[in-house]
Structure formats: structure tokens, C-alpha cells
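Listing S7. Sequence submitted for prediction.
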Amino acid sequence: MATVTHIDEALVQVLAADADIAMQAGSRIYQVQAPQGTAFPCVVFQRDTQLKDPFTHLLGAGELIRATYTFSCISDNLLEVRNLTRAVKAALQYTRTSLIRLAVVRSDDDQQELAPSGEQLPVYRTDLSVEVTYHEP
């Protein structure tokens, strides 16, 4: 397994290693924005906020950082979005790796929008808000 040097890489690795996500979205896991013409379903994530001040405890300042990410599960099929959302929640909830100390799903929010091409078919999206505490190498 490749050495992970950034929290975003670690998050992609967690999602890509999950069998349910791989079955549904394959390798369609993107940071910030999916490329134009991406097949559905897919997962797009981005960092919303980051607490730069390190955690402090009885021994002094720690090396942990906390950030909030939004993971969007997107498809033109509502059932696919629901199933992919369930898989992403399961993969991330209380996850711990060598870099990720703890990931906690805080909320989810359903969205519907017109297809970007102007077609009548809607695009469904569920946004998961995930708080990730991690060690920055």
C-alpha cells in the first residue's frame, strides 16, 4: 500500500477500499469537483472548515487537527444515491487509520437539481457533513 501523505489521500483510500462503495461508484471518487461527463453514481468531497489550532490536553499542545468535510453522493437515480450514501456513512463513521484519528458523520442533507445539460431528468445528491480529526505528517 502506498504511503499516504495528506488527509485527502487518506480519505480517498478509505472510500476506495470499501467493497460497497467500489461496487456502486467504482473509482469515481473526486476531490472538489467531478470531471465533466463523469458517469453516475459518484462521490465528490471537499474540506469546508479546518481548526488550525492544535488540540491541547494535560501534557500540552497536541498534534491533531480537526476539519469538517462534505461528502456528496451524486446520481440521476434516487435509490443509487441512498445506497451510496449508506455505504459512505458506514465506511467513514468512527474510522481510524494511521493518519485519521477519528471520523464522525454529523449530518446529511438531500438535494435535487436540474441536470447540467438542461435535460428534464433531475440529479439527486446527498451531502454528508463529516468531522475528521487527524494527525498531519
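Caption to Listing S7: primary sequence and predicted C-alpha cells for the chain studied. The chain has a mean pLDDT of 85. The longest strand covers residues 100-114.
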